[in-house]
Give the backbone structure.
Amino acid sequence: MPESKFSRMAPGLLAPGGVLDKAECAAQRALTAGVRNGQALWRLGDIHRMQGNLDAARDLYRRLSESGPDRQKASWLVALLEGRGLPEAPPHGACPAPFVRMKDFLTAQECDRLFALALARREHFGAARVVGNAEEGGRVDPKARITLEVKPGARRDVRLWFLPRIEQVIPEILTRLRLEDPGRYRITMNLRVYPAGGFYTIHHDNRDEPIRDRVLSFICFFHPEPRRFSGGDFLLYDSNQRGGHPVPAFSRIEPFRGGIVFFMSEDWHQVTPVECDADDFGAGRFVLSGHVSPAAGG
């Protein structure tokens, strides 16, 4: 399937009453009728993961890890969804992209402070660019991305207190994802908002030469509660090999205030369209996002 079709496919899959909801009902009926085979459990576990019901998916994978021919893959998935370090040997075939979720990475007070700062600096937001080989510094491409981000000078004070927090957990994250620790890091970061209609098509974060050295990416959510937007889901796609082409299956992570998600920069992901009041800047999907690369001289 061409990559461009993935981004158009996902909202239909996730819509209430859409393909995934219907597939879940069919799988539940099969299990209720006594079809207890591993294939039905695998199907339901994968459906839950794509719906964003990660705890339910983990419980089904745990059952599959206790018996059946794919126990290695099931055990690997349980470790992933429980937040433990991944087993040494990854499963064969199409496999979910690894990630680490941390709840309460920011306190409620820190989220409030960031949100107030974003509102106060609204005039410093501009269209985010897509980085590539064609133009240095990237280009604005509304077909690929609609995101607003703060200009460099207006985010310096945020970097000063936020980046040490990232540096503190990098060794743990690299260990859990089984990535080599270079010892010294270069971290890029921006404060962004996805307004009404904002999205980011499927991509990975180290595709082109200017950004090839990115190893780890992160997204930290700080929207106010209750949420005033829908959509904006982070979808992390399965693939047949590390850095390979994606397959039409994913792990869905809904925005969770104060939480952060770390993932490998080489893995394919997207942000689904945001729906909110177009006249209310504060109703959007607010994030601190960035990337980790080995520092020169590492």
The chain has a mean pLDDT of 90. The two ends are 38 Å apart (CA to CA). Residues 20 and 47 are 6 Å apart (CA to CA). The first helix runs from residue 3 to 14.
